[in-house]
Amino acid sequence: MKRQDLGDLVRLRRARDRMDRDYAEPLDVPTLARGALMSPGHFSRSFRAAFGETPYSYLMTRRIERAKALLRRGDLTVTEVCFAVGCTSLGSFSSRFTELVGESPSAYRARSHEHGAAIPACMAKLHTRPVRNGETVRDGEAGPAARP
Prior knowledge:
Blueprint: H1 6-21, H2 29-35, H3 40-51, H4 55-73, H5 78-84, H6 90-101, H7 105-110, H8 121-128, E1 135-138, E2 141-144
Antiparallel strand pairs: 1-2
Helix pairs in contact: 2-3
């Protein structure tokens, strides 16, 4: 694989920043690619090469992180949280949440979260980040698993 040029990396970082900021908006690969001045295929391949995961996977991780925070508050239903984080299908949201977190959104919402109430939000985010299959956690950060 050839090295990505600096301009592509800058545009990819801006797209990733947009996903971090606008996770609840209806973002998809064609929209993000257009913003990065790339074709959808080139954008997806370049994003994965730069960040180790697909744009969809990255966006869903951000959405699930936010969903976990909203569910811990306990004042919104699972359906309200699903739509608040930008998901349009409760079934898909629940499946993805369960895959990443290891329990359903309803079960996550129902259990006590008081033990983490005194933890600053920046630290809670670090320790509650969803970890996809094939990832390992090292030094408090989740990232792609080492490949042989």
